[in-house]
């Protein structure tokens, strides 16, 4: 038991050192092949730490120090002055925190089911509102973020587990909302057998109208394609 506790304390110290540097780290091309922070092992490291530290009990000293770490992540991501003047926002800290917290949620860690954990989750969401994955950073971090679609999958997991475990329902990011073309109701008319104000919508004719609109759009696209060939 003491060996396990000692190992958790040492691992937490290593993790704290990693995140302290992550808050100041901004990837650049010179770091490729030369920095462990862009290594494929980073994601495995973060997931392993989350897995092991999730086993600590709320009464242990490890749990208390883990809470301090989560609070420091929220502070690093939540500061309104962080990187605003220099233009060096802590995107690396955001990405690594997202991966770490998502794994804590997957492991149903008691450390994340706290006020500190909830605060960090909401802070990560707030940061996401202003974060736009840069192609150059994603390319440099390709070993553990892979590509924008991989980032989207991590984000989807984060949103799903936050709702499942803590009931935190995060609204969709603006650019992620699909722009559906609204279907207009046609021929809404009153019928004598209904009381004043009631109306009946002819859904059959709506379907016909949608079909005609779809066909018209397809023909228009074909004309455009033909014109460009």
Number of helices: 8
* Average predicted local confidence, pLDDT: 75
Gross geometry: globular
Oligomeric state = single chain
Output the strand order for the largest sheet.
1-2
Low-confidence stretches: 177-192, 194-215, 217-229
From the alpha carbons, calculate the radius of gyration and give it in angstroms. Answer: 25 Å
Question: Explain this structure to me?
Answer:
- The chain is mainly alpha-helical and 229 residues long.
- It has two domains: 2-176, no CATH class; 188-228, no CATH class.
- The chain is built from eight helices and two strands, in the order H-H-H-H-H-H-H-E-E-H.
- The chain has helices at 2-22, 41-53, 61-78, 91-106, 115-130, 135-140, 148-166, 203-228; strands at residues 188-189, 200-201.
- The chain has a two-stranded antiparallel ribbon.
- Helix 2 packs across helix 4 (91-106) and helix 3 (61-78) runs parallel beside helix 5.
- The longest helix has 26 residues, at 203-228.
- The radius of gyration is 25 Å and the shape is globular.
- Residues 177-192, 194-215 and 217-229 have low confidence and may be disordered.
Features:
single chain; 229 residues; mainly alpha; 2 domains; two-stranded antiparallel sheet; 8 helices; 2 strands; 2% strand; globular; disordered C terminus
SSE arrangement:
Layout: H1 2-22, H2 41-53, H3 61-78, H4 91-106, H5 115-130, H6 135-140, H7 148-166, E1 188-189, E2 200-201, H8 203-228
Antiparallel strand pairs: 1-2
Helix pairs in contact: 1-2, 1-3, 2-4, 3-5, 4-5, 4-7
């Amino acid at each position: 038991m003491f060996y396990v506790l000692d190992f958790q304390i040492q691992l937490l110290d290593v993790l704290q050192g990693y995140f302290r540097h992550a808050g100041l780290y901004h990837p650049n091309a010179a770091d490729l092949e030369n920095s462990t922070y862009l290594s494929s092992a980073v994601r495995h490291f973060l997931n392993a730490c989350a897995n092991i530290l999730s086993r600590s009990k709320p009464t242990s000293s490890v749990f208390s120090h883990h809470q301090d770490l989560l609070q420091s992540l929220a502070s690093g991501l939540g500061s309104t002055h962080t990187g605003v003047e220099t233009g060096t926002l802590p995107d690396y800290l955001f990405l690594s925190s997202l991966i770490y917290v998502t794994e804590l949620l997957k492991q149903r860690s008691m450390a994340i089911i706290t006020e500190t954990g909830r605060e960090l989750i909401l802070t990560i969401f707030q940061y996401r509102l202003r974060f736009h994955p840069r192609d150059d950073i994603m390319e440099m971090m390709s070993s553990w973020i892979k590509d924008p679609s991989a980032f989207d999958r991590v984000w989807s997991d984060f949103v799903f587990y936050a709702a499942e475990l803590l009931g935190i329902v995060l609204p969709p990011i603006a650019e992620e909302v699909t722009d559906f073309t609204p279907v207009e109701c046609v021929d809404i008319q009153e019928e004598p057998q209904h009381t004043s104000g009631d109306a009946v919508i002819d859904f059959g004719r709506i379907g016909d109208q949608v079909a005609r609109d779809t066909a018209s759009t397809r023909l228009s696209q074909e004309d455009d394609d033909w014109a460009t060939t």
